[in-house]
Here is the input.
Amino acid sequence: MTVLTERDVISRPVFAPPGVPAERVALLREAFDRTMCDPEFLADARHINLGIGPVPGCEVQAIVAKISAPPPEVVRRLREIFQPQ
Here is the structure.
């Protein structure tokens, strides 16, 4: 169920490509976090009825790692469940 439900936590993720230096990732995460707290940004989001529920970058990274490589038996079972009849 984790593979199916955890992706909802990161419904609109923001990614950087592999190999981005850690310092750059930290700066990007800080900028994102500051934006998510910016009163003007939040007012604009409310104005267009855009729900804002940010998830910290380290949590998103952990979720992606967890759901991007599920065990083979989980993949097999999900295929069985969702395969069209």
In short: Residues 22 and 72 are 31 Å apart (CA to CA). The longest helix spans residues 22-37. Residues 2-11+19-82 form one domain. The chain is about 65% helix and 0% strand.
